[in-house]
Write a structure and sequence with these properties.
Layout: H1 3-20, H2 25-30, H3 40-43, H4 55-59, H5 65-76, H6 83-93, E1 98-100, H7 107-114, E2 119-123, E3 141-143, H8 146-153, E4 157-161, H9 169-177, E5 183-188, H10 198-207, E6 209-213, E7 226-231, H11 233-236, H12 252-259, H13 265-280
Parallel strand pairs: 1-2, 1-4, 2-3, 4-5
Antiparallel strand pairs: 5-7, 6-7
Helix pairs in contact: 8-9
């Protein structure tokens, strides 16, 4: 999507928001202001039980949920950053010093810093497969490789949102968790999702302890972003049975059920099918 098309959609989106009395969160993101929360009526385009478009998208059919998400990605990143979720995550972090790796526009670092978290944002380069034509960095992002950043700053908590397939996330996690009392916080989709590959998740779960955190991260239609804590409990406990399996799960099915990683999976599949049918008409 080029910048001209984005601006056109933003203009139509503004009309739709005024019509429904919704906050125009795209304008807020453009001006580096965080919304408290995103309207549920915008996050979802279809009623998955009836197959009907929801009122917002039915009234303004030229606007697509996919396009709105695409623009949001350009403005603030893949996961949805709001004041509410930043407050929850900041409460969980407490007074521990943080580092963000693969930070993109630095939106999470900005949001957490507004809640009093001492955090440094780093990324080797700005993401190139999305244009970020409308976006600009929310906070100073130091151009630094993730592993070098972990070595340089030696902070106990590292945050990473939406690491890609083939990214050095696993290596960075191993580097961080080789030090006792450290924690990697992963924000994005879990096993089987769009963040990392299954082999990468297998490697993480083989070596470390993964816990789903009850932080209310909002999701776009068909997405399953959550917040995960990754720790090396053996290291943190200064020892332990080296032959024991660090994973809390006997199978991927048990893990998915326990963490509710795919609680909307059936809904997501139906919505995606409906979206493809509508798009093809």
């Amino acid at each position: 999507m080029d910048e001209g098309r984005m601006l056109q959609i933003i203009e139509e989106f503004d009309k739709a928001c005024k019509h429904f009395g919704y906050e125009n969160f795209l304008d807020k993101y453009r001006n580096h202001e965080l919304p408290e929360i995103l309207e549920e009526g915008i996050l979802y385009e279809f009623d998955w039980e009836t197959g009907e478009k929801l009122d917002f998208y039915k009234t303004f059919p030229e606007i697509s949920n996919f396009y709105i998400r695409d623009i949001c990605i350009n403005l603030q990143g893949f996961s949805i950053v709001t004041k509410n979720v930043a407050k929850e995550l900041a409460t969980y972090i407490g007074d521990r010093k943080c580092l963000e790796i693969m930070g993109g526009l630095g939106t999470w670092s900005y949001a957490l810093s507004q809640e009093g978290v001492d955090i440094i944002s780093t990324d080797l380069k700005l993401e190139t497969n999305f244009t970020f034509a409308l976006g600009k960095e929310w906070i100073e992002v130091e151009r630094l490789d993730c592993i070098e950043a972990i070595k340089k700053y030696n902070r106990p908590v590292v945050i990473c949102s939406w690491p890609r397939y083939g990214s050095p996330f696993v290596e960075a996690t191993k580097q961080l968790l080789s030090t006792p009392e450290t924690e990697m916080i992963h924000i994005g989709e879990g096993y089987g999702g769009c963040c990392l590959g299954e082999e990468e998740w297998d490697e993480i779960e083989k070596n470390f302890d993964v816990e789903y955190l009850s932080i209310h991260l909002q999701n776009w239609e068909g997405m399953h972003d959550s917040v995960y804590s990754i720790k090396n409990e053996k290291n943190n406990k200064n020892g332990g049975d080296e032959d024991s399996d660090s994973s809390d799960y006997d199978s991927s099915e048990e893990r998915d059920q326990d963490n509710s990683l795919f609680e909307e999976n059936e809904r997501a599949k139906k919505v995606n099918d409906l979206y493809n049918k509508v798009k093809d008409k």
